[in-house]
Amino acid sequence: MTQRAPHIGQVSPIIRQLDEAAINRIAAGEVVERPASAVKELVENAIDAGARRISVDIADGGKTLIRVTDDGCGMAPGDLPLALARHATSKIDGTDLLNIHSFGFRGEALASLGAVGRLTVTSRAAGLDGAEIAVTGGKVGTARPAALNGGTVITLRDLFHATPARLKFMRTDRAEAQAIGDVIKRLAMAEPSISFTLRDVSGGGEGRQTFRADAETGDLFHALHARLARVIGRDFADNSMRIDAERDGFRMTGCAGLPTYSRGAAVAQFLFVNGRPVRDRMLLGALRAGYMDVLSRDRHPVAALFIDCEGALVDVNVHPAKSEVRFRDPGTVRGLIVSGLRHALAEAGHRASSTVAAGTLGAFTPEQTGARVYQMDRPSHQARAASYAAQAPGFADMAGDYSARSEPEPVDVPMNMPLGAARAQVHENYIIAQTEDGIVIVDQHAAHERLVYERLKREQSGHGIAAQALLIPEIVDLSEADCATLIDAAPDLAALGLSIEAFGGGAIAVRETPAVLGNVDARALILDVLDELTDHGGSDTLRARIDAILSRMSCHGSIRSGRRMQADEMNALLREMEATPLSGQCNHGRPTYVALKLSDIERLFGRS
Q1: What is the mean pLDDT of the chain?
Q2: Nearby residues of 35 by Cβ (< 8 Å), 6 or more positions away
């Protein structure tokens, strides 16, 4: 076997002091990973300088040009050489590194950028003359007068020209430009009172504006809501919940999307600590835990959450790029996020995402016809009544041939209820209800499954889930390993109304099932519970395992697809949905109903 070469030579190594240029290039490797990292450092400096307008120009994905212009406080001519020195900053005095209120504090950004690129800083402070200084490959020039109305302009050209090997690890211009856009958008969310502009000037000229967010006005939440609508999208703003919660010195604000407004990947989760964008595993895990009860494992929530606290309660100096933080009491922060999200979800009640209705309308494709030559007005109530009476005999003859039934209009169910009054059932699975301004289509099985699940949770957290004893215990044959898994969980299952015991070999006896499920197939129930125990294993908390088991149980006690329901049953289901939190989505995060406005339906038929 070939002997592995040593990391250092055989000759006794000599310890040397690296020169300033090498030190700066090493520091740049930590701070400036790619063009987006440089943009982040420069824009954060502009925000710290009190800028109200920040403009960013890039070329070739930021590889050949990054120019950041702001209207901040600017710098005096005598401060420019010091600004380019390592560990020189105006943001802290070095006496307290655990109480930091600015984005930057290390004083490394400009020195690192000057070590790997061609950097020019032009600045003018109020009441002073403008000045400019340049640095190339770590060599700092002298400050000279420059014309500038105010603020600061920092131009970085030929990034990594001093370390060309780094350029081989860059991605395509498009990918790097997209990363820069992501950085600008995150900072724009954190600062809704500042205007941001991003322009791609590749090829020269005025270039192309790729992002713009004007300063928002109004109170803090309305300004934030408007900024999130601009950055994430209007759909998110319309289908999100307002978050505002406090606990032990920490406050969480922001917006979180409804469960039915979710994504297939965790690409729209934005977390901020004291206004600083972070990607922290603990915070992302807490966000996921807050939605654990309403989203399936392959769906991810959309949220923009802001955690604010005293600077002494969080350490932001634990990561070279300052993208991670460390809290003095992480358990409190996690509990705040989970409880705040769950409280907001409960307050949302039966609300579901409006994008579900939009997707439904988009699925309808009217048959293409010629130009409309005549549009009949909407008939009056009397005309509709006469028409229905004339058509009723014909529809009555066809009632047995079609899987749909209409119900007489109930006199005691007003249509001004949120989910309206039941009018029909189609395919023995979907309830059609009429509201004041449209219709609602309800998936009866998914909706009732959620209702049973919430009922089970209430009972479990109260006096325990009532159990019903089986007259004859049902014996279920399993493998010895599966049997052992269930027997180990027997005490927890008993608290959920499911009583089992070993019956020899790989068999178990089911003696009691939850009363709320009614008549249930005990074998199918046991197999589903076993699947949940196997999937979760011992990695999740007991609460997560219990909720997963209750979710499986609720499926067995819900109204099945294919069951015909009477009008009073359908309306009772609608009223219970209105009164039950989280009833707008099933246990897997899918919508339980779709609401269509009459104006949208009329548009499908060309009536608009």
Answers
A1: 80
A2: 58, 61, 62, 63, 66, 159, 170, 176, 179, 180
